[in-house]
Amino acid sequence: MNSKETQKKTKLSAENVNFYYGEKQVIKDVSLSFKENEITALIGPSGCGKSTFLRSLNRMNDLIESSRIDGFITLEGEDINSKECDVVELRRRVGMVFQKPTPFAKSIFENVVYGVRLNGIKDKEELMNIAEESLKKAALWNEVKDRLHQSALSLSGGQQQRLCIARALAVSPEVLLMDEPASALDPIATEKLEEGIKELKNDVCIVIVTHNMQQAERISDKTAFFYMGELIEWGDTKKIFHSPDCMKTAQYVSGSFG
Ligand SMILES: Nc1ncnc2c1ncn2[C@@H]1O[C@H](COP(=O)(O)OP(=O)(O)OP(=O)(O)O)[C@@H](O)[C@H]1O
Fold it and tell me: SUPFAM superfamilies given for it (predicted)?
Protein backbone atom coordinates (compact mmCIF):
# COMPACT_ATOMS: atom_id res chain seq x y z
CA MET A 1 0.00 0.00 0.00
CA ASN A 2 1.46 3.43 -0.85
CA SER A 3 1.42 6.28 1.65
CA LYS A 4 -1.33 8.19 -0.19
CA GLU A 5 -3.55 5.15 0.15
CA THR A 6 -2.90 4.66 3.86
CA GLN A 7 -3.80 8.33 4.40
CA LYS A 8 -7.25 7.83 2.89
CA LYS A 9 -9.96 7.80 5.51
CA THR A 10 -12.35 4.88 5.91
CA LYS A 11 -15.85 6.20 5.25
CA LEU A 12 -18.02 3.18 5.66
CA SER A 13 -17.27 -0.11 7.29
CA ALA A 14 -19.08 -3.43 7.71
CA GLU A 15 -18.03 -5.76 10.51
CA ASN A 16 -19.25 -9.34 10.79
CA VAL A 17 -22.50 -8.55 9.03
CA ASN A 18 -25.16 -11.26 8.74
CA PHE A 19 -28.42 -10.65 6.93
CA TYR A 20 -31.59 -12.74 6.90
CA TYR A 21 -34.82 -12.71 4.91
CA GLY A 22 -37.04 -14.57 7.40
CA GLU A 23 -35.18 -17.79 8.18
CA LYS A 24 -32.97 -17.57 5.13
CA GLN A 25 -29.48 -16.19 5.72
CA VAL A 26 -28.18 -14.43 2.61
CA ILE A 27 -25.14 -12.53 3.98
CA LYS A 28 -22.71 -14.50 6.09
CA ASP A 29 -20.23 -12.79 8.40
CA VAL A 30 -19.11 -10.15 5.92
CA SER A 31 -16.47 -7.60 6.94
CA LEU A 32 -15.49 -5.01 4.39
CA SER A 33 -14.63 -1.33 4.41
CA PHE A 34 -14.76 1.52 1.93
CA LYS A 35 -12.38 4.46 1.81
CA GLU A 36 -12.92 8.01 0.62
CA ASN A 37 -11.93 8.75 -3.00
CA GLU A 38 -12.20 5.09 -3.92
CA ILE A 39 -14.51 3.06 -6.10
CA THR A 40 -15.25 -0.46 -4.90
CA ALA A 41 -16.96 -2.96 -7.19
CA LEU A 42 -19.07 -5.75 -5.67
CA ILE A 43 -19.05 -8.77 -7.98
CA GLY A 44 -20.33 -12.32 -7.83
CA PRO A 45 -22.87 -14.65 -9.43
CA SER A 46 -26.57 -13.89 -9.40
CA GLY A 47 -28.17 -14.37 -5.99
CA CYS A 48 -24.91 -14.21 -4.00
CA GLY A 49 -26.18 -11.23 -1.98
CA LYS A 50 -24.48 -8.22 -3.62
CA SER A 51 -27.62 -6.06 -3.79
CA THR A 52 -28.75 -7.05 -0.32
CA PHE A 53 -25.36 -6.09 1.07
CA LEU A 54 -25.35 -2.82 -0.89
CA ARG A 55 -28.83 -1.92 0.33
CA SER A 56 -27.86 -2.63 3.91
CA LEU A 57 -25.26 0.16 3.67
CA ASN A 58 -27.96 2.85 3.82
CA ARG A 59 -30.72 0.79 5.42
CA MET A 60 -32.81 0.40 2.28
CA ASN A 61 -33.67 -3.09 3.53
CA ASP A 62 -35.51 -1.61 6.52
CA LEU A 63 -38.60 -1.56 4.34
CA ILE A 64 -38.56 -5.35 3.88
CA GLU A 65 -40.65 -7.01 6.53
CA SER A 66 -39.12 -10.03 8.24
CA SER A 67 -35.60 -9.01 7.23
CA ARG A 68 -32.97 -8.83 9.96
CA ILE A 69 -29.37 -7.74 10.16
CA ASP A 70 -26.70 -8.25 12.79
CA GLY A 71 -23.11 -7.15 13.04
CA PHE A 72 -22.01 -3.53 12.67
CA ILE A 73 -22.12 -1.08 9.82
CA THR A 74 -20.50 2.24 10.66
CA LEU A 75 -20.36 5.54 8.79
CA GLU A 76 -17.35 7.48 10.03
CA GLY A 77 -17.42 5.32 13.13
CA GLU A 78 -21.15 5.77 13.92
CA ASP A 79 -23.37 2.69 13.99
CA ILE A 80 -25.97 3.23 11.24
CA ASN A 81 -28.33 0.66 12.75
CA SER A 82 -28.43 2.24 16.19
CA LYS A 83 -31.66 3.76 17.49
CA GLU A 84 -30.02 7.18 17.52
CA CYS A 85 -29.28 7.11 13.79
CA ASP A 86 -31.50 9.46 11.77
CA VAL A 87 -32.33 7.39 8.68
CA VAL A 88 -33.26 10.38 6.51
CA GLU A 89 -29.90 12.00 7.24
CA LEU A 90 -28.15 8.64 6.71
CA ARG A 91 -29.66 8.38 3.22
CA ARG A 92 -28.61 11.95 2.46
CA ARG A 93 -25.05 11.05 3.40
CA VAL A 94 -25.18 7.66 1.69
CA GLY A 95 -27.08 8.13 -1.58
CA MET A 96 -28.27 5.49 -4.00
CA VAL A 97 -28.66 5.04 -7.74
CA PHE A 98 -30.73 2.10 -8.93
CA GLN A 99 -30.54 -0.35 -11.80
CA LYS A 100 -33.18 1.38 -13.89
CA PRO A 101 -33.25 5.17 -14.14
CA THR A 102 -35.94 6.56 -11.85
CA PRO A 103 -36.56 10.16 -12.95
CA PHE A 104 -39.68 11.88 -11.59
CA ALA A 105 -42.25 13.23 -14.07
CA LYS A 106 -40.92 16.73 -13.53
CA SER A 107 -38.48 19.01 -15.31
CA ILE A 108 -34.77 18.21 -15.47
CA PHE A 109 -34.09 21.07 -13.08
CA GLU A 110 -36.76 20.00 -10.59
CA ASN A 111 -35.43 16.45 -10.61
CA VAL A 112 -31.94 17.58 -9.66
CA VAL A 113 -33.01 19.93 -6.88
CA TYR A 114 -35.74 17.66 -5.49
CA GLY A 115 -33.86 16.58 -2.35
CA VAL A 116 -32.33 20.02 -1.91
CA ARG A 117 -35.80 21.58 -1.78
CA LEU A 118 -36.90 18.95 0.74
CA ASN A 119 -33.96 20.06 2.87
CA GLY A 120 -35.51 23.54 2.93
CA ILE A 121 -33.40 25.45 0.40
CA LYS A 122 -35.65 27.84 -1.54
CA ASP A 123 -33.35 30.52 -2.94
CA LYS A 124 -33.57 30.34 -6.75
CA GLU A 125 -29.98 31.30 -7.41
CA GLU A 126 -28.67 28.80 -4.90
CA LEU A 127 -30.85 26.05 -6.38
CA MET A 128 -29.61 26.90 -9.88
CA ASN A 129 -25.98 26.80 -8.74
CA ILE A 130 -26.49 23.42 -7.10
CA ALA A 131 -28.25 22.08 -10.21
CA GLU A 132 -25.44 23.25 -12.49
CA GLU A 133 -22.70 21.87 -10.28
CA SER A 134 -24.44 18.51 -9.83
CA LEU A 135 -25.17 18.14 -13.55
CA LYS A 136 -21.56 18.96 -14.36
CA LYS A 137 -20.31 16.33 -11.92
CA ALA A 138 -22.67 13.79 -13.45
CA ALA A 139 -21.30 14.68 -16.92
CA LEU A 140 -24.73 15.77 -18.18
CA TRP A 141 -24.60 19.58 -18.07
CA ASN A 142 -23.54 20.18 -21.67
CA GLU A 143 -26.36 18.03 -22.99
CA VAL A 144 -29.14 19.65 -20.95
CA LYS A 145 -28.09 23.20 -20.09
CA ASP A 146 -30.43 24.70 -22.71
CA ARG A 147 -33.43 22.58 -21.77
CA LEU A 148 -33.42 22.49 -17.97
CA HIS A 149 -37.16 23.13 -17.81
CA GLN A 150 -38.13 20.35 -20.18
CA SER A 151 -39.45 17.08 -18.84
CA ALA A 152 -36.83 14.64 -17.56
CA LEU A 153 -38.82 11.94 -19.33
CA SER A 154 -37.72 13.41 -22.67
CA LEU A 155 -34.12 12.32 -21.98
CA SER A 156 -32.56 9.10 -23.27
CA GLY A 157 -32.04 6.20 -20.85
CA GLY A 158 -28.36 7.02 -20.40
CA GLN A 159 -29.13 10.69 -19.81
CA GLN A 160 -31.85 9.75 -17.32
CA GLN A 161 -29.37 7.62 -15.40
CA ARG A 162 -26.86 10.48 -15.26
CA LEU A 163 -29.73 12.73 -14.14
CA CYS A 164 -30.40 10.32 -11.26
CA ILE A 165 -26.73 10.56 -10.34
CA ALA A 166 -26.95 14.37 -10.43
CA ARG A 167 -30.04 14.20 -8.20
CA ALA A 168 -28.19 12.00 -5.75
CA LEU A 169 -25.14 14.31 -5.80
CA ALA A 170 -27.17 17.50 -5.26
CA VAL A 171 -27.60 16.79 -1.54
CA SER A 172 -23.80 16.38 -1.13
CA PRO A 173 -23.56 12.73 -0.14
CA GLU A 174 -20.32 11.27 1.16
CA VAL A 175 -21.00 7.84 -0.29
CA LEU A 176 -22.85 6.83 -3.43
CA LEU A 177 -24.21 3.30 -3.77
CA MET A 178 -24.90 2.11 -7.31
CA ASP A 179 -26.78 -1.07 -8.13
CA GLU A 180 -25.89 -2.08 -11.70
CA PRO A 181 -26.41 1.48 -12.94
CA ALA A 182 -25.48 0.64 -16.54
CA SER A 183 -27.48 -2.54 -16.95
CA ALA A 184 -30.22 -0.84 -18.99
CA LEU A 185 -27.81 1.16 -21.17
CA ASP A 186 -26.20 0.63 -24.57
CA PRO A 187 -22.37 0.54 -24.85
CA ILE A 188 -22.01 4.21 -25.75
CA ALA A 189 -24.21 5.40 -22.90
CA THR A 190 -22.36 2.97 -20.60
CA GLU A 191 -19.01 4.43 -21.59
CA LYS A 192 -20.23 7.95 -20.82
CA LEU A 193 -21.65 6.84 -17.51
CA GLU A 194 -18.39 5.11 -16.58
CA GLU A 195 -16.38 8.22 -17.42
CA GLY A 196 -18.68 10.22 -15.14
CA ILE A 197 -18.37 7.69 -12.31
CA LYS A 198 -14.57 7.70 -12.48
CA GLU A 199 -14.53 11.50 -12.08
CA LEU A 200 -16.91 11.34 -9.14
CA LYS A 201 -14.53 9.57 -6.85
CA ASN A 202 -12.83 12.92 -6.23
CA ASP A 203 -15.97 13.90 -4.36
CA VAL A 204 -17.56 10.74 -3.03
CA CYS A 205 -16.77 7.21 -2.01
CA ILE A 206 -18.47 4.87 -4.49
CA VAL A 207 -19.71 1.31 -4.06
CA ILE A 208 -21.00 -0.25 -7.26
CA VAL A 209 -22.62 -3.61 -7.95
CA THR A 210 -21.89 -4.88 -11.43
CA HIS A 211 -22.23 -8.07 -13.43
CA ASN A 212 -19.90 -6.71 -16.02
CA MET A 213 -16.36 -7.88 -15.29
CA GLN A 214 -14.77 -5.47 -17.77
CA GLN A 215 -16.65 -2.64 -16.17
CA ALA A 216 -15.46 -3.61 -12.69
CA GLU A 217 -11.90 -3.76 -13.95
CA ARG A 218 -12.18 -0.46 -15.84
CA ILE A 219 -13.62 1.71 -13.13
CA SER A 220 -12.89 0.30 -9.68
CA ASP A 221 -9.91 0.64 -7.35
CA LYS A 222 -11.05 -2.22 -5.13
CA THR A 223 -13.09 -5.30 -5.90
CA ALA A 224 -14.99 -7.56 -3.52
CA PHE A 225 -16.03 -11.01 -4.70
CA PHE A 226 -19.15 -12.53 -3.11
CA TYR A 227 -20.21 -16.14 -3.42
CA MET A 228 -23.31 -17.65 -1.79
CA GLY A 229 -23.54 -14.86 0.77
CA GLU A 230 -19.88 -14.97 1.76
CA LEU A 231 -17.18 -12.49 0.94
CA ILE A 232 -14.57 -14.75 -0.61
CA GLU A 233 -11.91 -12.17 -1.30
CA TRP A 234 -11.43 -8.43 -1.65
CA GLY A 235 -8.57 -6.12 -2.42
CA ASP A 236 -7.00 -4.10 -5.20
CA THR A 237 -8.89 -4.61 -8.45
CA LYS A 238 -5.68 -5.50 -10.33
CA LYS A 239 -4.90 -8.25 -7.85
CA ILE A 240 -8.43 -9.67 -7.79
CA PHE A 241 -8.47 -9.85 -11.58
CA HIS A 242 -4.91 -10.97 -12.25
CA SER A 243 -3.54 -12.79 -9.20
CA PRO A 244 -6.34 -13.55 -6.74
CA ASP A 245 -5.61 -15.69 -3.69
CA CYS A 246 -8.66 -17.94 -4.05
CA MET A 247 -9.35 -20.41 -6.83
CA LYS A 248 -13.07 -19.50 -6.78
CA THR A 249 -12.23 -15.86 -7.49
CA ALA A 250 -9.94 -16.81 -10.36
CA GLN A 251 -12.66 -19.02 -11.84
CA TYR A 252 -15.31 -16.32 -11.54
CA VAL A 253 -13.30 -13.42 -12.99
CA SER A 254 -12.17 -15.60 -15.88
CA GLY A 255 -15.79 -16.40 -16.67
CA SER A 256 -15.68 -20.12 -15.79
CA PHE A 257 -19.02 -19.84 -13.99
CA GLY A 258 -21.74 -17.35 -12.98
N1 LIG B 1 -37.05 -9.26 -0.58
C2 LIG B 1 -36.55 -10.49 -0.52
N3 LIG B 1 -37.18 -11.47 0.18
C4 LIG B 1 -36.68 -12.72 0.26
N5 LIG B 1 -35.53 -13.12 -0.36
C6 LIG B 1 -34.87 -12.20 -1.08
C7 LIG B 1 -35.34 -10.84 -1.21
N8 LIG B 1 -34.47 -10.17 -2.00
C9 LIG B 1 -33.49 -11.04 -2.33
N10 LIG B 1 -33.74 -12.26 -1.79
C11 LIG B 1 -32.90 -13.46 -1.91
O12 LIG B 1 -31.63 -13.17 -1.30
C13 LIG B 1 -30.57 -13.72 -2.05
C14 LIG B 1 -29.60 -12.65 -2.45
O15 LIG B 1 -30.25 -11.78 -3.37
P16 LIG B 1 -29.55 -10.44 -3.93
O17 LIG B 1 -30.54 -9.76 -4.82
O18 LIG B 1 -28.99 -9.68 -2.81
O19 LIG B 1 -28.36 -11.08 -4.78
P20 LIG B 1 -27.52 -10.46 -5.97
O21 LIG B 1 -26.16 -11.05 -5.86
O22 LIG B 1 -27.63 -8.97 -5.95
O23 LIG B 1 -28.27 -11.03 -7.24
P24 LIG B 1 -28.41 -10.43 -8.72
O25 LIG B 1 -27.01 -10.30 -9.22
O26 LIG B 1 -29.20 -11.46 -9.45
O27 LIG B 1 -29.11 -9.11 -8.60
C28 LIG B 1 -31.21 -14.45 -3.24
O29 LIG B 1 -31.36 -15.81 -2.89
C30 LIG B 1 -32.58 -13.78 -3.36
O31 LIG B 1 -33.53 -14.66 -3.89
Answer: P-loop containing nucleoside triphosphate hydrolases
